[in-house]
Each structure stands twice: as C-alpha cells, then as structure tokens.
Specification:
Length: 400
C-alpha cells in the first residue's frame, strides 16, 4: 500500500469535524450576538462587524468545499510528488523519509492550532458587543472564530508546504545542473560546428561532422551518461511544473477569496481607526491594539502567499541561466549535436512552462500585489471617509 507524503486522511477528518461544527455552532453564535445590543454609534462599524462574521464563515465553508471537490487532484499531486522523489533519488542520491516528514507535519499542525487561538481571540474581541467582555468558552470564540480560522490556517499551511516542497525540487534540479556543468570535462577537442538557421524560427540546429573515428566513438560512449542524466532532469523538471499547475488549480479559489477578504478587512478596520481618532467610535482603549493586530494579520496573510509564490517562481527562473551557461560550453563535447539538442529542448521546456502564479487567473501573486492592495485600500478608505463626512454632518449615524 502506498504511503502518501501528505496526510490526505488526516486532512479529511479535520475538514469533516469542521463541517459538523459549522451548521450548529455558527448559528448558535450568531443567535448569541443578536441577543445583545450593539451600542456603537457608528453604523458602518456595526455593519462591518456582522459582515466579518458571515465572511469568515463563508471562507471556511468555501475552503471545506473546494478541498473535497479537488480531492482527486490532491491524490494525483501526491502520486506525482512520489514519482518525482523516486527519479531524484536515482540522480542526486538523496533519500526521502516520509515517516519523519509525517511526524514533522503533525508537529506543525499542532503549532497551527496554537496560532489559531490568539487569532480567534483577537477576532472575537473585535466583533463582540462593547458591553460584553471576552469569554473563552463562548460560542462566538469556538464556532464563529476558532473553527473557520483554524480551517483557513490549515489550508494556508498546506498550500505553503506544497509550494515549498516543489520549490525544493526545483532547487535540487538547479544544483544538479550546476554541478553537472562544473564537473563535466569533455574528452574530445572542440570540433567545428555549422549552424543552420531556420526561417521564422528562433531555434538553431547545430550540425557536426559525421566522420566517426575510434577516439570520437570512445568519447561519445564516455559522455553518454551525461546526456542520459540531462534527459532525466528534463523529465523531472516537467513533472515538477505539472505539480505547480496542480497546486495552483487546487488553491486558486482559496488565494482569491483570502486576498479579497483581507483587502476588505484592511479597509474597514482602517476606517474604524479613523472613527476612533475622530471620536465617532466609542470603544475601549485596549481594543485599539486588537484592531491594529487584525490589520497586520491580514497583511501578513497576503505577504506570505506572495513570498512563497515569488520564491518558487524565482527557483524556476534560475534554471534558465544555468541552462544558458551549459549551452555555451556544450560545443566542446564530442557528441555536441545530441547534447546541444537536449539542452535546446530543455530551454524551450523552461520557457514554455514558465508559470504565472495567480489567484484563479484574477491577479498575479507577486510583490506588486502588496503595493496595489495598499494603494487600493487607501483610495477606498478616503472615499468612505468622504462619504461619511458629507452625508452625516455630525459624523454620527442615527442610533437605534
């Protein structure tokens, strides 16, 4: 029986547990919040508080649904990773201990649950009414905050873990190519190579002399393992690129929803800070810390996704420069024609399979996204403030 490098069964049990918590616990927590009066004078703050409750629940529900709808793709991804590991084991002579990796995954899962506790406390304090103090055993904490937040963190952890795993595969390929380029000493002298350029094509087809001497034949047999290793690396690179496609397909909706919600939270919580400064929002002083902390959490959620995607993309791009150096020195080989052609195919594979890391095709997950979100949040914040000051002369919404 095959052992998967990622715990699919554990993931399914956790998702099932969260799913049963949602229908009962969420509506119980909503009923508890509705039974208490909101005495904040700012209508936007009251509206955004309820919007945050339902948005968090929707995010958790979407995470659970997309996980089960993409379960087949996750199994394919696990099988592909095992195939890649097997091929890497034959080339780089490295062993992958899945039992140790699973133990590390359990420890990381425990750390993930510990992170969910303070985040749930911060969110619960933000959305609870003013007159109610924070209660760790409340339904708001466990079902409205902790259940969806722990699910989202677990899914986020899974995405980062898989992307880091694939990034490591790219780095192993690049290291092998660099070592392969340094350690390869061609036995035969340089031969003249004629290059034929095709019309309407950027490729170059090198042609070498076809006279086969005994020394040339011996050199070709000596260099044949180099060609074989290069072909294997090409196959592994293609498989890892397929793995990146699967990861982006599985987590594309998660990246889109999480980034959109984080953008909204940054905007409305920044407005709450403005209302506090302008004395239109009456809250306790200690809640200011939690509002700022919640804004920083949303920024970190976006930054982590951008960081891991950029690191993986950079690892893929590094292969291009390594291949270019190998193409420059490949003409010294006795079997330069075959070696050069494989390098050319490898280079075309890297260029064709260059991935655009995006959130379900809506926006790219790069560092420009962070500046775009901050600029957009500032713009919408100014619009909301102008709307508030223009339509409410005394800077207050009518109290109910």
């Amino acid at each position: 029986m095959k052992q998967w490098p990622v715990g699919i069964s554990t993931e399914g049990n956790i998702y099932s547990l969260h799913f049963f918590q949602f229908p009962v616990g969420f509506f119980s927590g909503v009923y508890q919040l509705q039974s208490a009066d909101y005495k904040r004078g700012d209508g936007i703050s009251r509206l955004t508080g309820w919007a945050q409750v339902y948005t968090l629940f929707t995010l958790g529900l979407v995470a659970w649904i997309t996980s089960w709808t993409h379960m087949e793709e996750q199994c394919r991804l696990c099988a592909l990773i095992m195939k890649i590991d097997q091929r890497l084991r034959d080339i780089v002579e490295i062993d992958f201990d899945y039992k140790t990796l699973r133990k590390q995954l359990i420890w990381q899962l425990g750390l993930e649950l510990l992170i969910a506790f303070p985040l749930s406390m911060v969110n619960c304090i933000i959305i609870q009414p003013d007159e109610k103090s924070f209660m760790p055993m409340s339904t708001c904490f466990w079902f409205i905050c902790f259940a969806p937040i722990s699910l989202l963190i677990f899914k986020q952890f899974q995405f980062c873990h898989l992307m880091r795993l694939l990034k490591t595969k790219f780095e192993l390929i690049n290291n092998k190519l660099c070592k392969f380029n340094r350690d390869t000493h061609f036995a035969c002298g340089r031969r003249r190579i004629m290059t034929v350029r095709k019309m309407n094509s950027v490729s170059e087809v090198p042609l070498t002399a076809t006279i086969a001497t005994s020394a040339a034949v011996e050199a070709e047999l000596t260099e044949e393992p180099n060609v074989d290793i290069l072909q294997k690396l090409l196959t592994i690179y293609s498989n890892v690129s397929d793995g990146v496609d699967l990861v982006l397909s599985i987590f594309g909706c998660h990246l889109l929803c999480l980034t959109a919600v984080s953008f909204g939270v940054i905007t409305v919580q920044s407005y709450n800070l403005f209302s506090l400064v302008s004395h239109t929002l009456k809250i306790h002083v200690y809640e200011i810390v939690f509002i700022v902390a919640w804004i920083l959490v949303q920024i970190m959620a976006i930054a982590v996704n951008v960081f891991i995607c950029s690191r993986t993309s950079r690892a893929m791009e590094n292969t291009v420069s390594v291949l270019h150096k190998m193409r420059v020195s490949s003409n010294e080989a006795s079997n330069a024609s075959l070696f050069y052609q494989i390098l050319q195919i490898f280079s075309m594979e890297v260029m064709q399979r260059k991935r655009n890391f995006n959130a379900a095709g809506f926006f790219d997950m790069d560092y420009k996204l962070i500046t775009s979100i901050l600029a957009s949040a500032t713009t919408y914040l100014v619009i909301i403030i102008q709307f508030h000051l223009t339509n409410i002369p005394d800077c207050h919404f009518p109290k109910e």
